[in-house]
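Entry:
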Amino acid sequence: MTSSSQTLAGPSRPGRFLGPSLDKIIKNVAWRKHSALVSASKSALDLLATLSDSPYPIPSSSIPYISPADANALLHPLILAIESASPKITEPALDCTQKLISHGLIRCEIAPVDPADAGSSNVASRLLDSICRCGGVGDDAVELAIIRALLSAVRSPSLLIRGECLVQIVKSCYNVYLGSLSGTNQISAKAALAQIVAIVCARVEADSMVAEIRTISVAELLELSDKGLNEPSFVQSVQNFISEAVDGYEGDPIILNSSPQSEPRDGCNSGVNGTGECGNGESNDGGDLGGGSTIREDGFFLFKNLCKFSMKFSTQENPEDHLILRGKVLSLELLRVAIDNAGLLWRTNERFLGAIKQYLCLSLLKNSALSAMSIFQLLCSIFMSLLSKFRSGLKAEVGIFFPMLILRVLENVLQPSFLQKMTVLNLLEKICQDSQLIIDIFVNYDCDVDSPNIFERTVNGLLKTALGVPPGSTTTLSPAQDTTFRIESVKCLVAIIKTMGAWMDQQLRIADYYPSKNLEIDMSSENQYAVNGEEGTANDYELHAEGNSELSEAATLEQRRAYKIEFQKGISLFNRKPSKGIEFLINAKKIGSSPEEVAVFLKNTTGLNETMIGDYLGEREEFPLKVMHAYVDSLNCEGMDFGQAIRFFLRGFRLPGEAQKIDRIMEKFAERYCKCNPSSFSSADTAYVLAYSVIMLNTDAHNNMVKDKMSKADFIRNNRGIDDGKDLPEEYLGSLYDQIVKNEIKMNAESSAQESKQANSINKLLGLDNILNLVTWKQEEEKALGANGVLIKHIQEQFKAKKGKSESVFYAVTDAAILRFMVEVCWAPMLAAFSMTLDQSDDTAATFQCLQGFHYAVHVTSVMCMQTQRDAFVTTVAKFTYLHCAADMKQKNVDAVKTIMTIAIEDGNYLQESWEHILTCLSRFEHLQLLGEGAPPDASFFAIPRSDADEKPQKSPVFPSIKKKGNALQSPAVMAVVRGGSYDSTTVGVNASGLVTPEQINNFISNLNLLDQIGNFELNHIFAHSQRLNSEAIVAFVKALCKVSMAELQSPTDPRVFSLTKIVEIAHYNMNRIRLVWTRIWNVLSDFFVSVGLSENLSVAIFVMDSLRQLAMKFLEREELSNYNFQNEFLRPFVIVMQKSGSAEIRELIVRCISQMVLSRVNNVKSGWKSVFMVFTTAAADERKNIVLLAFETMEKIVRDYFPYITETETTTFTDCVRCLITFTNSRFNSDVSLNAIAFLRFCAVKLAEGGVVFYEKNNESGSSISVDGDGSDGHTFTDKDDHVYFWVPLLTGLSKLTTDPRPAIRRSSLEVLFNILKDHGHLFSRTFWIGVYRSVIFPIFNKEQQMKRRVDLNGGQLSPDRDSSGNEENSWSSETYVVAAQCLVDIFVSFFDVVRSQLPNVVSVLTNLIGNSNQSTASTGVAALLRLTGNLGSKLLEEEWNQIFLSLKDSAASTLPEFLKVMRIMDNIDIPVVAQAYSDAELYSDHGFDCDDVEDDSLQAASYVVGRMKGHIAVQLLIIQVITELYRTHQHSLSAANIKILLEIFSSVASHAHELNSESILQRKLQRVCSVFEISEPPVVHFENESHQSYLNFIQALVKESPSLFAEMGMESQLVALCEKILQMYLNCAAQHLPANQLTLHWVLPLGSAKKEELAARTPLVVLALEVLASVEKDSFRRHLSHFFPLLVNLIRCEHSSGEVQRILSNMFLSCIGPIIMDL
């Protein structure tokens, strides 16, 4: 058999297929009937026997390697066999042709065959033409062979099938699909057509015959139609058939030449040129192809014809033509395949994109009127493909079809078609899954003022569907259908928010690698379409790289969105109040302010209410009138008939109902019409009347309320004589009448169906009012649409007119901020849909979708920082957990808890304030778990004894498991939870009342079992996951957790510790964060611990402090570097609570906690020492003795055993330690504590001196200073320049202040320690620091004012003259202090004299102040100290320094006088009564006393005070005399004349003061009486006077003896004589009785009283000394001064004396001194 075949076929390659086929044809053919076929077949066989392949291909031949003539001879029998119409011979011919084509043995261009000149076409074209015209002859095998052959021809890269031939092949497959009785053949034909379209699209995209061909899926083709044929066996066999045809081909592709002159329709050319034009005159529609590729030309031609196929409609004679409907469905399916396989070329080439706009969109528009569900589904599928791929180029078209196909059905809630709406919902679900598509829709429509709000309407439509049919409404839906709709709509909403989140995540990640893109705008005229997110496109970031805008995408879109919202607000206002609306829009600069611009707005703006437009145009105000004129003047009615003109004029607004308004409008219209048509009427009045008449006719003819209609005769009669008295032609009026009656004058909007206000505005915007009236989803409407070609043409013109306008500007964004505006639109509908569905439905699928929607919504709103929206979603989910009323929980509520946990884990970084709701839910969940397990309530933690506070309580067996129904009814906590409460209530069940039934308990227990689905792992994972939160999120998380914990702990009935324990965990988990973040976290936690630690609930406060202790122990496990402050900040809550807490238990607990932490973690404590010492400092001043002792016990151990750790890293803690010890020294509970603290201070000083404190340079305090003196003017300031001595300051000042302590032991100890420290370590101090020590440490000890203030405080703030008890105590206290202090002061000063020499004046001033003290003991101390000072330094002191000492003494003597005199003046106002009888002078001065009852107590007390003050004052003055006398005696050789002069001044001033004081006779008598009353000694006034003058006189006498030269130099002789005279005069004043002025002679002298005699006796030594001094004066001097004191000497002889010493010295003086002088006269 094989040899026979080879014999028939010959040696050529075509012969292998032609030989057996021709032989079979010859055997099966009827020879007589088909003689030509037989003859041709035999000739071909003979030719094959001799024919061999040429070594090179022959270009002009249809069969390569064979001459054209031989090729014609070989293929001609196949043509005849196919045309024979006999299945037996047609089938082998078709089979042979398919094999030749599939093996590449036929290679040429297939051009259309002209029936009139068939010979001019090549044989291959004729062969293919015969196959197309074969028709299948009714045989299934032949039909399948035709399909196979045609598919192979199209698939073969060796055949270039031109446009018309390609269309003919498609038609042949159409015919097989429509006419075949075999289901397999129908499917095969349909699949072959789809594959042909896919092949053509692939080649068009590649612009080559060799392209990657995608095999179509037969199963997908049968999804929408031919579902009856969708049997698996059929589908699989057809799929194999298609795959075999696509994959089974051989041969080389045909070479496309580039000859510019060849004609593609010329079938004789084997090559085709790439620039030729198709012979079809319609091939150039839409523009060129950018190069004129024949392959693309043919693809364009096929696409156009497929669109035309889809627009064939039934005729009026046969409206139910099933074949036309099937063909339409098939055409739409092929168009869908074409769109699905279209690549980048279709989106970027203007002609192909224009074909989609011009043909495909028109097809969609026409077919949208059909009610066949398959067609609608195909339209939706095609529209989905257009949206996915071509939205950037079809902005206007998408804006038209989206409302028409989708929104119209979606918004129909009451009467929808179930399948139709399900189709729309499925389509929306696919749309919503494309994130970029959703973004682009919002950006290009909702943000475009000229486009509909597609996204907003979609979301709102889905909301309406999700809410279901309103109660009480009539609907065609069954409950099951309504439920299905609701679930599907929720799915769509979930898909929207999910894709928004996915796009946001993608953009935010991209933003890490790419700079923020500016708004991308591409114009259709530039052939550059932004196709961001469309399939098969290039990288979005490569588009519009040159675009630079100053505003970001989000900012620009925000402006556009805001503009649109405000513009629509103006329109809405206009539709209510036109004038207000126009005013608003003008003020908002949305329209111009000129009448012309407002007229354009009224004419062209969509959404305006036509009635309101008419009302506004008819207004009589000036501006609306101008607008009406501008509106009418914009009308171009030139060449129009009057009826057409008025109809055209009234299409944009409705005439107002008021006659005057109509009159104004018609008047202006008539003027405009006559102006445009001057020859129409003789005057405008004619047009005006006729216009009115036409309006009346239109109302009469088309108003159903008018019964008697106006006839044509009536109309003509009514208009007689209106043309300047003449009649208009009757024919003209009759024609106008017929026009109005047959076709009502109405606005554009009146022809559309009644829709919602929003739908009407959108429809008018798109010019679809008339179309949508036709598209009512009823089959009978198809006729009107098919017949209305004018309307379709109008829509096409609209499409073309919109090209190049702003609508064609397509925006593509990459800025995630755009989501904020989208969320603002959709969040409320989504929240309503999800919450209502979740609340009303228990369906698992529905609740799952709602919870997913909440999850994604929280994600988007959180990341976009939309706080209000985020909180709304989170709060809603939290409420749906029903954890606040667990008895009502269901499975969906448990799922809500799971969702809450998922949100917490996945979106924790963005939740911020929403964490509070989540953590509240977690707290309630844990509470329910504990109740279910039978665990004891947290309140049991607070009931344990304080001594056991550190031990964790064990679960008590008293609480049985509730799940086992133990004693549940007896548990108050369970009862409260079962009763439940509101979500916002702090404590569940607190405010509820009433009994709980067993049924409720059972429900509660079963619900607890539901909660077992969630384990502790998920709960704890949220808190463990906190380590992954970013720095902002962890702070927000901690804030929320603290707030929730606060609410738990403050519960009055059932405080809980869940959140508190989690706070400790969280802090532990996050301790390793960077310091800045940890500081922020701890700032929050610190405030929390302080707030709760100060709680009135003692148990809660104790628990919180113990929790803080645990946390601090963990924290102290970490080592801290030097110079950081984290430990101090961490322990600060202990300090604050310690300082502010009123609970002794809390304070004691804190002390114990700190003690435990420090002693156990002493190696790790660094900056924490500061807080430790602050706690102990507060404890040292506590009112509880046990707290003080407990704190000091730890403090003692720290200082003694761990002192090196204190200053290991932070030297300033040394000062904190010192301050703490100083505070302990003030403890009033135990002197031992104070004394030990003082000892520790000395220990600290030793460590400081030894270098035990590490000193660091305080760079951060450069220029800062620390004043340690309360008086800034007098106090010295220690600065950083003093280096390490800075640390001595608090220690020394603290000890200095202790010297005023009321306890003698403390004063003494502090003084000793202070001065020992200074003495032992003073060599370390600089001169500057010593100055500061003196002024701020030493001198304040002697500060009298400070001590007085302390005494006032001790005495309750009152100072009374009667202060014997307090004064004695003070004197004792001061004396002891001053004795020690003065000695130490002198010792220190002497020891460091060379360093502190400059402080001599201040030291002397201190000592002289002591000397001047009214307390004699203190003054004596000062004297001793001063003498000791000068004794040790006498030889070292300079003249100036002596001068300073003496001046200081002088000032001290004088400084007491003013105050003393002020005290003396008290006696001026006090009257001391005397005895009424007159006594003699002797009796008056006798020792008589007074009765105390005669004197008021207050006066006597004051006088007693004066007596005391006077005694003290006299003692001080005498001490000063004593001091200077001693100083002179000791250091007279070191004193200069200037020093001596100061001493003389002191002696003189004191003596003068003493004399004056003794001269106050009245005062003396009063004081004598007072002393007599109180039986106390009188002030030693006389003694004072005698001593002061005697010291003065002795000093001068010593000066004369020891330094006569100095005496002479200073000229002191006269001063000496004067002093002696004064002394004599004082004696005489005391002893002699002055005679009255008029008494010439003294007859008798009364003897002196006893008091006077005593005074004379006291004065006698002084007088004797004075006389001796006078007697010792040189003779010349004595002679010179004798005249002055001689009378005094004479008087001395006359007066009475107490002893004979005065007379003896007088006698000697007269004998030795005066006698010689007299003798010399």
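The longest strand covers residues 108-110.
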